[in-house]
């Protein structure tokens, strides 16, 4: 059975702050189980928190992330795929440029 995590535990295990977890809860990105005022999460919430962080690193807004995580339509998924592919192309190009620059620097400064 899943061990339940508090907001602080989820934040620590997921590499976030408790404040960020609460913001994600308020926006509906993370859905805790509640007992009165106490919120707790299943361990699977760590994976969801990681998905939120990945999407943020890719430049998606929290609203876009919510659309992606909460049963998106096919058209939304296709749009997200195109955007991630564009980010990947840009990242690949930038990596190639940086590697070329590093190689040039090594030749000039052995």
Question: What do you see in this structure?
Answer:
The chain is built from five helices and two strands, in the order H-H-E-E-H-H-H. The chain is mainly alpha-helical. A two-stranded antiparallel ribbon has the order 1-2. A hairpin with a 2-residue loop joins strand 1 and strand 2. The chain is elongated, with a radius of gyration of 19 Å.
Q: Count helical runs.
A: 5
Radius of gyration: 19 Å
Tally of strands: 2
Specify the structural class: mainly alpha
Helical content class: 55-70%
The run of helices and strands is HHEEHHH
Strand order of the largest sheet: 1-2
Taken as a percent bin, the fraction of beta residues is 5-15%
Largest sheet: 2 strands, antiparallel
What general form does the structure show? elongated
Distance between the termini: 58 Å
Low-confidence stretches: none
Mean pLDDT comes to 91
């Amino acid at each position: 059975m899943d061990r339940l995590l508090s907001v602080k535990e989820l934040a620590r295990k997921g590499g976030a702050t408790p404040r960020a977890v609460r913001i994600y809860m308020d926006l509906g990105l993370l859905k805790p189980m509640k007992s009165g005022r106490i919120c707790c999460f299943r361990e699977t919430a760590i994976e969801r928190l990681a998905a939120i962080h990945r999407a943020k690193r890719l430049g998606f807004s929290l609203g876009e992330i919510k659309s992606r995580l909460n049963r998106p339509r096919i058209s939304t998924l296709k749009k997200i795929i195109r955007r991630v592919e564009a980010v990947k192309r840009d990242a690949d190009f930038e990596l190639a440029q940086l590697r070329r620059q590093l190689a040039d620097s090594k030749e000039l400064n052995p």
